[in-house]
UniProtKB/TrEMBL annotation:
This is Aminoglycoside phosphotransferase domain-containing protein. It comes from Ruegeria intermedia. Residues 23-248 form the Aminoglycoside phosphotransferase domain. It comes from the Bacteria. Pfam families: APH (PF01636). InterPro entries: Aminoglycoside_PTrfase (IPR002575), Kinase-like_dom_sf (IPR011009).
Length: 334
């Protein structure tokens, strides 16, 4: 059987980049790998995405969403070459200025970058919808329950199935009530380590978009939760409130309804993240994700204070163990 390295060489041989220098780039939580290719003569660069189909990866959703984002005037990487059968893409290289890195060295730019990222969502949510699956209350409830089946069970060795069933029933009702209505394109992993600052471009195109292959249709508040309740980077409460108000003012959505949906979707997203991080540590040998659980828990506890969550708040506080150092150690050692 042809190995992956040979397939990459064959793919690159069909492009102008066959003689390029190759350098690994940081990956993500998936089975995808990335390399930066540098032309030894011009110094020009592109990015190679290696997404093995035999490990469950599929580049076609990325291609579809990238082309859609381009069509509405946003900055997704241009696709320069593709081999969907074997899972390879050559992509425009946006460089290394992730929002998170820019803000480490230039914290005074925080407001400008978050303004721009919020404006991208306003622009995206006003665009015509492509054909994408819906991130509906049923699926959101199912994924929220990972907090029971992965996070709680990873710590306790079991989980309260009755409590989980009560939660699923109540939370599905909350999601139906508070997040129904308008559907927009939701990138689902919209945060400071997936956004690249492109200051030489204009307007919303200054924000380079990455990691959007799981895009679905959902409530407009979802990606703002991803951006502002960032478990990797603490967004100041003042910035969070300013960006929520900026989005509401620019989009014309109902203030009360949007803020309620924001808290409800915050609970959904943070419950799912608790379960996903526990699973990545226990099942995939990636224990560093456990370090992000305390921040996730803090967001969850704050979101549960909203009156719309009253029917599940105490249930979750009782059923889910706190991320104490001892409990986190259990997840790392599971």
């Amino acid at each position: 059987m042809t190995n992956r390295a040979d397939l990459i060489q064959a793919f690159l041989a069909r492009t102008p980049w066959s003689g390029a220098r190759r350098q690994p780039l940081a990956g993500d939580a998936s089975n995808r790998r990335y390399e930066r290719l540098t032309d030894p003569e011009t110094g020009g660069t592109v990015v190679l995405m290696d997404a093995p189909p035999d490990k469950g990866e599929d580049v076609r959703p990325f291609v579809k969403v990238a082309r859609y984002l381009h069509s509405i005037g946003l900055s997704a990487p241009e696709i320069l070459a593709e081999d969907a059968e074997h899972g390879f893409l050559l992509l425009e290289d946006f460089g290394d200025d992730l929002f998170a890195r820019v803000l480490e060295r230039a914290p005074e730019k925080e407001r400008a970058l978050y303004d721009a990222a919020t404006d991208v969502l306003v622009h995206l949510h006003a665009a015509p919808l492509p054909a994408l699956d819906s991130y509906d209350p049923s699926l959101m409830t199912e994924l929220s329950a990972l907090a029971f089946t992965k996070y709680a069970e990873g710590i306790l060795g079991t989980h309260d199935a009755d409590a989980r069933a009560r939660f699923e029933h109540r939370f599905a009702d909350i999601l139906h009530q508070e997040t129904s209505g308008t559907r927009v394109v939701t990138l689902r992993d919209y945060h400071a380590e997936n956004l690249i600052w492109l200051p030489d471009r204009d307007g919303v195109r200054r924000v380079g978009l990455l990691d959007f292959q799981c895009a679905m249709l959902c409530h407009p508040a979802y990606d703002l939760v991803s951006l502002l309740q960032d478990v990797r980077r603490a967004v100041p409460a003042g910035v969070e409130m300013q960006m929520i108000q900026r989005y509401i003012a620019a989009s014309g959505v109902d203030d009360h309804d949007f803020r309620t949906a924001y808290s409800v979707l915050g609970v959904q997203r943070n419950l799912r993240i608790l379960g996903v991080f526990a699973r990545l540590a226990m099942d995939y040998g990636k224990p560093h994700y456990i370090d992000l659980i305390p921040a996730t828990w803090a967001h969850l506890m704050r979101d549960l204070e909203h009156p719309a969550l009253i029917s599940v708040a105490d249930l979750l506080r009782e059923a889910l163990p706190e991320p104490t150092p001892e409990n986190l150690a259990r997840l790392r050692g599971a």
